[in-house]
Automatic annotation (TrEMBL):
It catalyses: L-citrulline + L-aspartate + ATP = 2-(N(omega)-L-arginino)succinate + AMP + diphosphate + H(+). Pfam families: Arginosuc_syn_C (PF20979), Arginosuc_synth (PF00764). One of its GO terms (molecular function) is argininosuccinate synthase activity. L-citrulline binds at Y94, S99, N130, R134, S185, S194, E270, Y282. PROSITE patterns: ARGININOSUCCIN_SYN_1 (PS00564), ARGININOSUCCIN_SYN_2 (PS00565). It is an enzyme of class 6 (ligase). Homotetramer. L-aspartate binds at T126, N130, D131. Its EC number is 6.3.4.5. The keyword Nucleus does not apply. Belongs to the argininosuccinate synthase family. Type 1 subfamily. CDD domains: ASS. It comes from Acetobacter conturbans. This is Argininosuccinate synthase.
Length: 413
C-alpha cells in the first residue's frame, strides 16, 4: 500500500522500536508521512542493552503510549525451549537465534494494537532480508485484516547519507559512531548474537576478533575443562549443577559458561528465504551447550524409531521456523508430535566444556531404555538370544539375495 493511500486511512500504528537510529528515523517518518499517532513497543529479549533510553527517545518524539516490556522468560519458555525439543538446526548448523525471536515480537505488537485500537503495525526490517517475511507472516496469521507498514520498502532513504540527513533535518540525535559507515550490523537476544554486512560480506575473509560479542576465542579459553550437569524434565532443562532455575536464568547461566569456554561460534553462508545467500557470524554459547545436552538425554530415553522419525522431520521444522511460519498449522502439527516425544525425556546429563567443545561424559534417567543386561559382552544370563539374529538377518537379506540373482543375469540395479 502506497503512503499516499495510507495517509488517509491509518490513524494509529504500533511500531517495533529499539531506540536506535533506524527505528527513530522510522518513528519520525511515520509521523510525517502518514500523519498518524505512533505507539512504540520495545521488547527486552535479553539483548543486553538498557531499554530506558528507548522510552525517553519515544517521549522526545511526543509518543503518548509507550510499551517497554521484559519478555525474557516468555521468550525462552514458550519459544526457545519448544524449538530445542526438536534439536533444531537450519541447514545443519544454524540454531535460529534471530528467527525464533520474531514471532514473539510480532505477537506482542498485535496484542498491543488490539489493546490501544491501532489499525496498523510497522517494523524496521529491510526489503532484502528474512525478517520482513517473519514479522509480516506472523502479523497476518494473528490479525488477518491488520495493515502493515514496511518503511524500507516505501521510502527513498536508501543510503546511510540520506538517513543521516533526514535525522538531522528532524532533530533526531545521532551518536558520533553512527555518522561513519558501521563496520557490521548486530542483532542480539538471550539466545544468540548475529553479525553481518560490511566487513563480513566477503565469505572468503575470516571475521576479526572485534566481531564477536558473546564468546572469547577458543584458544584463549581455560586449559582446564569445566564440568557441569544439566537436569531435564519432559525435554526441557530445569537445573544446572543441581540448582533449579527459571528458563531465562538457566539460559543466561549457560551463556556465561559457554562464553568463558569459547563455545558457540559459527561462520555461516546460508540460503535466505527471499532467494539470496548471505554470510553471518553467529554466537550461541548457551544454545550450543543445550543442544548437545538435549541430544544426550534423548539418546537413552527415546525409542529408536521415535528418535529417527523426529530427526527426519527436524530439517522441515527448522525450515518452517527460519522462513517465518511459527503460527502456521504445519508448525503446530509438528510441534505436537515433537512435544509428545518428550514425555520420557527426563534425567541428568554430565558435560565437559573445553576450548570450544561440548563433550557429553555421562547421562542417566529413570526412564532409560539402555539395558546393560542386553548390551553386555559378558554373560547376559539369557536376556538376549544371539541365535535370534540369524533369522533376522536372513529376512532382511531376502530382497538383496533375490536382487543379486537377477543382477547376475544383468537385470537388477
Amino acid at each position: 500500500m502506497a503512503p499516499a493511500d495510507a495517509n488517509r486511512r491509518i490513524k494509529k500504528v504500533v511500531l517495533a522500536y529499539s531506540g536506535g537510529l533506524d527505528t527513530s528515523v522510522i518513528l519520525r517518518w511515520l509521523q510525517t508521512t502518514y500523519g498518524c499517532e505512533v505507539v512504540t513497543f520495545t521488547a527486552d529479549l535479553g539483548q543486553g542493552e538498557e531499554l530506558e533510553p528507548a522510552r525517553k527517545k519515544a517521549e522526545m518524539f511526543g509518543v503518548k503510549e509507550i510499551f517497554v516490556e521484559d519478555l525474557r522468560e516468555t521468550f525462552v519458555k514458550d519459544f526457545v525451549f519448544p524449538m530445542f525439543r526438536a534439536n533444531t538446526l537450519y541447514e545443519g548448523q544454524y540454531l535460529l537465534g534471530t528467527s525464533i525471536a520474531r514471532p514473539l515480537i510480532a505477537q506482542r505488537q498485535i496484542e498491543i494494537a488490539e489493546q490501544v485500537g491501532a489499525d496498523a503495525v510497522a517494523h524496521g526490517a529491510t526489503g532484502k532480508g528474512n525478517d520482513q517475511v517473519r514479522f509480516e507472516l506472523a502479523y497476518y496469521a494473528l490479525k488477518p485484516d491488520i495493515q502493515v507498514i514496511a518503511p524500507w520498502r516505501e521510502w527513498d532513504l536508501t543510503s546511510r547519507t540520506r538517513l543521516l540527513a533526514f535525522a538531522e533535518e528532524h532533530q533526531i540525535p545521532v551518536t558520533r559512531d553512527k555518522r561513519g559507515e558501521a563496520p557490521f550490523s548486530v542483532d542480539a537476544n538471550l539466545l544468540h548474537s548475529s553479525s553481518e554486512g560490511k566487513i563480513l560480506e566477503d565469505p572468503a575473509v575470516g571475521p576479526e576478533e572485534i566481531v564477536f560479542q558473546r564468546t572469547i576465542a577458543p584458544e584463549d579459553a581455560p586449559d582446564v575443562a569445566t564440568e557441569i550437569t544439566i537436569d531435564f524434565v519432559s525435554g526441557d532443562p530445569v537445573a544446572i549443577n543441581g540448582e533449579a532455575m527459571s528458563p531465562a536464568t538457566l539460559l543466561t547461566k549457560l551463556n556465561e559458561l559457554g562464553k568463558t569456554n569459547g563455545i558457540g561460534r559459527l561462520d555461516l553462508v546460508e540460503n535466505r528465504f527471499v532467494g539470496m545467500k548471505s554470510r553471518g557470524i553467529y554466537e550461541t554459547p548457551g544454545g550450543t551447550i543445550l543442544l548437545t545436552a538435549h541430544r544426550s538425554i534423548e539418546s537413552i530415553t527415546l525409542d529408536r524409531e521415535a528418535m529417527h522419525l523426529k530427526d527426519s522431520l527436524m530439517p522441515k521444522y527448522a525450515e518452517i521456523l527460519y522462513n517465518g511460519f511459527w503460527f502456521s498449522p504445519e508448525r503446530r502439527m509438528l510441534q505436537a508430535l515433537i512435544d509428545a516425544s518428550q514425555h520420557s525425556v527426563s534425567g541428568r546429563v554430565r558435560l565437559k566444556l573445553y576450548k570450544g567443545n561440548v563433550i557429553c561424559v555421562g547421562r542417566e534417567s529413570p526412564n532409560s531404555l539402555y539395558d546393560t543386561r542386553v548390551v553386555t559382552f559378558e554373560d547376559d544370563e539369557g536376556a538376549y538370544n544371539q541365535q535370534d539374529a540369524q533369522g533376522f538377518i536372513k529376512l532382511n537379506a531376502l530382497r538383496l539375495r533375490l536382487g543379486g540373482q537377477i543382477g547376475r543375469r544383468g537385470g537388477a540395479l
